[in-house]
Amino acid sequence: PFLRLLEAQLQDERREHEEEAEALKNEVEAMREELEKQQQAFLQALQLSPEAQVEFGLQQEITRLTNENLDLKEFLEKLEKNEKKLKKQLKIYMKKVQDFEASQAIVPAEGRQNERNMQVAVQRKEKDFQGMLEYYKEDEPLLIRNLVT
């Protein structure tokens, strides 16, 4: 059993190695073809007159820049799609936040009072107050009721 496992692993590794070697051979062949194209273009450029060499060089540069521009346009389109997707997600999250805030507004005032008391208690543990108290104007009746009780 152990020997069969080792044989299976060896065969898997051999297969992976062969696939990797084949991929590398294909890559080398593609690079070789590209090199041959570049050498032919270079030899053609050498046979041209100086003016034609300049024009040929300009054509090569225009082709390169055109390809680069196409790549950049493709990249820009991807970024724009991503931006639209993120804006949609933001709208969804904003809606969820609004729904959550609305549901919190429905909670009875006493529940909110307990939450606020707990928040105040936490704040008191974190800070040293020296006679000043900051509050929202809409919380004034609640604050006065708490002071009375």
Quick structural gist:
It comes from Centropus bengalensis. The chain is mainly α and 149 residues long.
In percent, how much strand structure appears in the residues?
under 5%
What is the general shape? elongated
Number of helical regions:
4
Give the total of beta strands. 0
Secondary structural class? mainly alpha
Mean pLDDT: 83
Largest sheet: none
Low-pLDDT residue spans: none
Please bin the fraction of helical residues: over 70%
Spatial gap, N to C terminus? 80 Å
Order of helices and strands: HHHH
The radius of gyration over CA amounts to 36 Å
Protein name: MYO5B protein
Keywords: Coiled coil
Organism: Centropus bengalensis
Blueprint (SSEs and pairs):
Blueprint: H1 2-47, H2 50-106, H3 109-126, H4 140-148
Keyphrases for this structure?
149 residues; mainly alpha; 4 helices; 0% strand
Task: Describe the 3D structure.
This is MYO5B protein. Helix content is 87%, strand content 0%. It is mainly α. Among the domains are: 1-47; 51-104. It is elongated and about 100 Å long. The N and C termini lie far apart (80 Å). 0% of the residues are buried. The model has no long low-confidence stretch (mean pLDDT 83).
